[in-house]
Amino acid sequence: METVDPSAPALTDIRQADRLYQPFPDFASWKGLTEEDRDLWDRFAKGLEAQRAAVPPEVFGRAVEVAMRAAAIDTGAIEGLYDVDRGFTMSVATQAVAWEHAMGEKGEEVRALFEAQLEAYELVLDVATKRRPVYEAWIRQLHEILCAAQDTYKVLTPSGWQEHDLVKGQYKTLPNHVRLKDGTFHAYAPVDQVPQEMHRLVEILTSPEFDAAHPVLQASYAHYALVNVHPFADGNGRVARALASLYFYRAVSVPLVIFANQRLAYFDVLHAADAGHLDPLLAFFRDRGIDTMQLVTESLHMPGSPLPEEIAVELAALRAGKRELDEPIASRLVDAIETELLRQVDRLHPQGIFLRTDKNLVFTADGPRGILSTDLYSQLSGEAISRDFRASVDTDARLAFRVQLVTDLEALRLDVRLEDVSPELTESFRFRLTNWIKLNLSQMLLELRKQVKDSLESSSERKNP
Q1: Given CA atoms 300, 305, 308, 313 in this order, what sign does their dihedral have?
Q2: 94-112 in b/e burial notation, b at 16+ Cβ within 10 A?
Q3: Cα 176 to Cα 170: distance, rounded to the nearest angstrom
């Protein structure tokens, strides 16, 4: 579609184009919502309200903010101000990890447009929450905020496309009829009729009949009527979507969210309404409202649960941290335990005592753990005792003793400060380790002795029943 300057040769008689304008219908004719439509809407509205009652207000507010940010980023994309895809939209909406970086790649102009549009939706929410009536001055203010970051708009003139200054918060001073692909024109309200048409619209929007109507009828009518008038030089679609959000906010506390990839379906139902077919438009607004209620309901489950991107980044950081610090410590400690055990057992070889070892490194929720599995056996009797020595490093940096050395005998647990084993094993730790190994080795030998004695007694009993 093209906005055409009145001096363009394709439109020789601007007054003839003005006469093509069809005033938006009275609200009394805005019908077509069925009982099935109302029941479907009510089912999701009640579900959302039940979810809202089950969570703190701030949690519900954050869920609504996700929908609001989605509406704010895609409303500009619908107008072709920039491109988005679903991944980018949801990243911005949920404020996922690196969303600001993704926004930065779009450029500062897109960021400025988004921030202006988000501010406008926040204004709509404030008006809805405080149940303030709609005035013409407020609609103009909404336009001013929405378009704050846009200085110009494109107009087709006899010399081709030109950038014209966009005056914000004021009604148009030049016709903005749109030329369609077939060369015909879609006419909007003539400049001199805009004030009276906007006055008529506000009177309808503040009437008791309108106030009592279903939110789908309210939102679709307010949107259609404003777009039909096209009171501003540019930004009319953005204003219409924000205005429609007011009625969804009032009814179910969510905005109207139309995603950029729904753009063609959205324009199709507006064109159908121009031809007098309201059902597609009403169904579209009903479905977008239900979709947004579902989006908010699903977002309620997000607080307290990090987003997948956040978890992945955290896991990568933890894994890197284990590789760089905790994992080498755990490995170093297992090596030290094995070395000291073998040194002490080596002295027992003349008595036929030997040690077999096997090292492993595992990761738990609390941090990495080195495991030294051992078999202490008597070569003379063939008896053996198995024991695991475990060296763990807790990931909680607040702990005074992050390192623990344990065996199956919890009483012999050795708590160690991180600085005693990193970056190197200190002499004081090595001294403690030597004693700790000696105690554990003694316990293992005592168990081995008992096992040998029991075996000998059992053998003797079999020989001498």
Answers
A1: positive
A2: bebbebeeebeebeeebee
A3: 14
Tally of residues, the chain: 465
Q: Which residues of 418-449 are buried (b: 16+ CB within 10 A; e: fewer)?
A: bebbbeebeeebeeebeebbeebbebbbebbe
pLDDT value at 303 more than 80: no
The DSSP output letter for 410 is G
Pull the structure tokens for residue 370.
């080195």
Confidence (pTM): 0.66
d(CA 226, CA 207): 16
- Please list, in sequence order, all residues whose beta carbon lies within 8 angstroms of the beta carbon of residue 426, skipping any fewer than 6 positions away: 419, 420
pLDDT tens sequence across 270-298:
999 999 999 999 999 999 999 999 999 98
Residues 152, 154, 157, 161, CA torsion sign: positive
CATH topology of domain 2-305: Fic-like fold (1.10.3290)
Q: Return the higher-pLDDT residue of 462 and 419.
A: 419
Q: What is the mean pLDDT of residues 315-331?
A: 57
Break the chain into its structural domains and give their ranges.
Answer: 2-305, 309-463
pLDDT digits (tens, 9 = 90+) for 218-274: 999 999 999 999 999 999 999 999 999 999 999 999 999 999 999 999 999 999 999
The H or E element that residue 356 is part of is strand 353-364
Tokens 């507006």, located at residue: 270
Q: Is the dihedral of CA 106, 109, 112, 118 positive or negative?
A: negative
- Residue 382 has which token pair? 């063939």
Residues 280/268, Cβ–Cβ less than 8 Å: yes
On the question of a cis peptide bond just before residue 328, with omega within 30 degrees of 0, the verdict is no
